Amino acid sequence: MEAEETRGSEPVRSRWTPKPEQILILESIFNSGMVNPPKDETVRIRMLLEKFGSVGDANVFYWFQNRRSRSRRRQRQIQASLRDQPQPHHIDNSIPCAYNPPIYLISSSAVIGPGSSSSIGVEADGFLSFTGHHNSIDSSNLHYQSWVITVFINGVATEVGRGPVDMKAMFGGDYLLFHSSGVAVEANEHGFLVQSLQHGESYFLVPRH
Question: Could you tell me which residue ranges the Homeobox domain spans (predicted)?
Fold first, then answer.
């Protein structure tokens, strides 16, 4: 009996390991707020991922399922730590609104967000195309680690993408974020952080009062 399972007519590659370029695309889409894409979006995402290696619709479906589970587990860890974490002193609660958040779409034209000047579009033949500048993800030297950093939020090691972060999508609530020095991390009216978090730094997440 073959090891592969099926979801509908699509084979599940049980040992599918996404390439760095595919992980970047998947994480960008997830962090944009599309955490449970419908079937038609799953197909579009799969078509894009196929430019960088073999992948099926079911692989995309299960990646998002597993990623949601990890995100919920991380939220529980962070929220549990809030009870034991004192608020930093000298807090500036002002929230500047000058930043326009990046656009995340997987449709006829789209932009893959933070840290990339690259864009996704549909060519005449109906397939998704990918174009970019010096940091285009079609570079053979691209590594997953260059697009994901690790920070400590209320003492919990957390992986985040470089660039603006959607606070509500990531933490599941209305929170303020502060650096361990007590300086507030600025966010705009849409809940996106204005600046990237810094790799290895410690931050405190507190409920907005």
Answer: 9-74
Backbone dihedral angles phi then psi of residue 113, each to the nearest 5 degrees? -70, -130
141: DSSP letter: T
Q: Where are the domains of the chain?
A: 5-100+142-207
- What DSSP character marks residue 11? E
Question: What pLDDT band is residue 62 in, cutting at 50, 70 and 90?
Answer: very high
Contact call for residues 127 and 47 (beta carbons, < 8 A): yes
Per-residue tokens: 131: 């174009």
Residue-averaged pLDDT of the chain: 69
Cβ(18)–Cβ(28) below 8 Å? no
Do 37 and 171 meet the contact criterion of CB atoms below 8 Å apart?
A: no
Residue 48 burial (10 A CB sphere; 0-12, 13-18, 19+): buried
pLDDT at 88: 57
Please give the torsion angle defined by the CA atoms of residues 155, 158, 164 and 165, in that order, rounded to the nearest 10 degrees.
-90
Helix (H, G, I), strand (E, B) or coil at 18: coil
CB 151 within 8 A of CB 160: yes
